[in-house]
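QUALITY CONTROL LOG
STEP: pairwise intake check
CHECKER ROLE: data steward
CRITERIA: each record must contain a sequence immediately followed by its structure tokens, with no blank fields

ENTRY 1 OF 2
RESULT FIELD BELOW
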Amino acid sequence: MEDKRPEEEKILDKYKCSLFRSDGLKKGSNDYLWLEFNEDGRFKEKHKECAIGRSLIMSPFNFAFTWQTTEVTEIVEEKENYVKFKTKNSEYEFYTKQDGE
């Protein structure tokens, strides 16, 4: 039987978070951080919440990270376990699930 659930639900079966870009790119990982940078572009601080000026990075947190966005320029919609946002280059939808889900 064909699984007719939305793609974000299928990816969340395997991963704790999933990212969808408006052009069709799909990424999944088990952790994420929102990175804040100084005016000179150097790392300043890491966060668990989306905000204007932050970049999303998806685990693993080393040279082989899954994906990193450019800085968020607009938060279009935000609710529990979901944020739709725009960056300098693209538009994304980001889904997370709580431990135990």
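ENTRY 2 OF 2
RESULT FIELD BELOW
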Amino acid sequence: MQLKNSRLKIQGADKHIADLDARIGGLPNSDIATVEINPDRGNEVIKHDIADRAAVDDIAVIAGDAVHNLKCALDYAWLGTIAKLVPSAVSKFAKIPPATPLKVRFEKSR
């Protein structure tokens, strides 16, 4: 059952990714580019803006939903693996083990 749930979450993520692709695909039509010339220095600056202000929020929410579904898919797959290999370890607290953090040493600047 866990692997079926995992597959369903991946399908949900695929839908979100397709929605994200469509939302991003519409952005070139809302791009506004302006050239500003500094009268004192004479240099030109090109500024880009998006007329569709809701796009940023929409993209963030859709991407977050896709990532959440993929994380849930991993949880379901992990629980399915535990259920088959170590059934006694299945509990509401069973989670994917965290990766060992990399230890990075920074040398002091001289």
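INTAKE CHECK: passed for both entries
DESCRIPTIVE NOTE, ENTRY 2: The chain has one domain: 2-89.
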